[in-house]
Amino acid sequence: MKSDARLVRGAAQKELVKAFESLCGRHGRWEVWADWIVMCACSISNAVDRAHRNEREKTYKTLSEKYTEAERQTMAEMLGMVVAALDENQDQDLLGEIFMTLGLGNEHNGQFFTPYNVCSAMSALNSENIAAQVERQGWVSVSDPACGAGALLVAFANECTRQKVNYQTSVLFVAQDIDFTVGLMCYIQLSLLGCAGYVVIGDTLAHPATAYDRRGADPAG
């Protein structure tokens, strides 16, 4: 079977896909991807948030025990690849593009992620003079109620940069998605880019994310 690395774009994506495929001998592709995403999210969260550290550590340990030492090392290297790729070029939906190219999206759940170039265009068209809003309000918030891997929010962050606005200090990012795995993909990408905010896992139509304040800085629940 040919490698799916031939289908992705750029050296970073190809390297990441090849490493991922090397893990899919004893385990299914979806299982490996989902486990890796959870482990990455736990590692990032435990570095900055101690509130539920022990619970996350148990989850990480349970998942990691399914894999050999060599496989766990590969998973750690994959996270390093993501960090390096976003450090080199943050203007991309790295995890989302790979996820869709690998065919991991669930058509029955409507998982057809918006291409990143479209997200960039949408952000540019709907984000006029962000600096003036920050100057007037002190900060701005942005929300995506069907965030997927976070492409639209990542695009907004990059639009802020183009408009000379420091999104790391002046923007609150709020995301929600019904799918646990892709919601964590969004969390990983926003975290690695230094986007302040939170990701809610849940059905936006039935249980939309709410907050105690008007602009969403203090999430309810």
Automatic annotation (TrEMBL):
DNA methylase adenine-specific domain: residues covered: 107-211
Enzyme class: transferase
Record has Lyase as a keyword: no
GO biological process, one term: DNA restriction-modification system
Keyword set includes Nucleotide-binding: no
Catalytic activity, as annotated: a 2'-deoxyadenosine in DNA + S-adenosyl-L-methionine = an N(6)-methyl-2'-deoxyadenosine in DNA + S-adenosyl-L-homocysteine + H(+)
Origin superkingdom: Bacteria
MF (Gene Ontology): DNA binding; N-methyltransferase activity; site-specific DNA-methyltransferase (adenine-specific) activity
Keywords assigned: Methyltransferase, Restriction system, S-adenosyl-L-methionine, Transferase
The protein's name: site-specific DNA-methyltransferase (adenine-specific)
This enzyme's EC code(s): 2.1.1.72
